[in-house]
């Protein structure tokens, strides 16, 4: 598990490390600059060997790829230009320039901003650089440098970028150079990922201590390139006392998140998932969800679906207990769920409702019933969410009333209906909409899915997913996710629903990474996601 900080938390960690624990600011800065230099020298080595770097497009931002380029970028004088602002981000850049020169790589510095406003550390770094005779330039010629280091603004960016700052950022973006941003791309808001007027389109960002939210969330993610996190010596004590609200998973978490498979266990030991899904002639979504729950490791899956789907489900997924909710409706539209539905609800540890369920009266009555469940984790997905949105619109329900046992899995459009906001509003502040609107847990799905714990959960966390790729943009992918989350939650009913949801999202993403190691990202289907679970779940 890795912390992700916002601008305020990152500054607090700086502050505690320096002012309370007593690590000198210049010591941290020296390590930060060394971290930048280490990464630059790797790139520089490739450039010197006539390899160059392909600038990324939005589509392949997750996979910054180096490639051969024929353009003649080599310059006999200065190879690297550090563009430095007047704060400590600029100071990191000036320190890095000094170290690059020390290592024999010709480096120049271009200052931006009013030197009278330079921070104390910046003044010190400038003094050292001048004493060493590092060259300063006043102009930045296009394509003169192999590498440009963006050290204009870091986490101290506080407003829209205008004037000379804007001009230089546009010049940097218009160059052919490989661009390395120090700590965060200048122009990206470290908290929300917004672009404050303009921003540097980095090929690589070397960030210090912890990932910043803004470089993972859109649109900031597109401007960050490949991200390298450098440990510059912020003590754990400082990080823990700030206890950042956001986190992400890493591969080694796979082995500690799920309960161990002990020797003397049976199918009853790993939980029971009930999937209420599929309407007449809509069987696929139900199958995907149920099959994924099994592959995610739960012990038993039971399905309640439309009568017409039963045979095909029994054939395609013989492992599942298949029943129908249809019999329950024989009394007409005034029915209340009776035997089979009530019995199945009582049986389950975790319930999924919604995939392919349709919006019929039957579906609405089923959702209404499930919304009353209080004592088990419930995943509401797809049509379940659309029906819930309708209830909310008709004032029959309130998003705020759903308890902490519920996990909603909306994509942006579904969240827009649930929250009564535009998709742009949701898109621009995903952490807020994943946490602040409801008491329940929300899996807000996008290329960078955000999972939030309800607004009233003390110390509620936000999970920002970093696994996966665009191979997941395929029909049925969401149905599979609902099943994975339920399958994980069922194995440990004490696990917080938000944690099960976040881990499910992470595992779902890993399937795409695994798949595209050997196969085309254009070809992955929902069935492939289910199959790949065998390769990504712990052995
Ligand atoms: N603390 C430490 O020792 C360590 C810090 N570290 C490094 O320091 C970075 C944070 O440094 P920081 O706090 O000095 O902020 P930074 O990002 O340089 O920007 C502040 C400057 O920008 C200016 N400014 C802001 N917005 C503007 C705008 N739109 N347009 C124009 N100007 C604008 C602002 O001006 P002002 O608002 O004061 O007028 C001020 O001059 C961090 O990201 C990391 O790289 C590491 O070395 C580890 C140790
Ligand atoms: K920067």
UniProtKB/TrEMBL annotation:
Catalytic reaction list: (6S)-NADPHX + ADP = AMP + phosphate + NADPH + H(+); (6R)-NADPHX = (6S)-NADPHX; (6S)-NADHX + ADP = AMP + phosphate + NADH + H(+); (6R)-NADHX = (6S)-NADHX
UniProt cofactor note: Binds 1 potassium ion per subunit.
Record key words, sorted: ATP-binding, Isomerase, Lyase, Metal-binding, Multifunctional enzyme, NAD, NADP, Nucleotide-binding, Potassium
Species name: Butyribacter intestini
Binding positions (K(+)): 89, 150, 186
Xref: CDD domains: YXKO-related
Enzyme Commission number(s) from the entry: 4.2.1.136, 5.1.99.6
PROSITE patterns, sorted: YJEF_C_2, YJEF_C_3, YJEF_N
Domain named YjeF C-terminal: residues: 250-539
KW Transcription regulation (keyword) present: no
NCBIfam families xref list: yjeF_cterm (TIGR00196), yjeF_nterm (TIGR00197)
Quaternary state and interactors: Homotetramer.
Similarity comment: In the C-terminal section; belongs to the NnrD/CARKD family.
InterPro entries tied to this protein: Carbohydrate_kinase_pred_CS, CARKD, Nnr, Ribokinase-like, YjeF_N_dom, YjeF_N_dom_sf
Protease among keywords: no
The protein's name in its UniProt record: Bifunctional NAD(P)H-hydrate repair enzyme
Signal peptide region: none
Binding site residues for (6S)-NADPHX: 88-92, 154-160, 165, 183, 285, 356, 411, 479
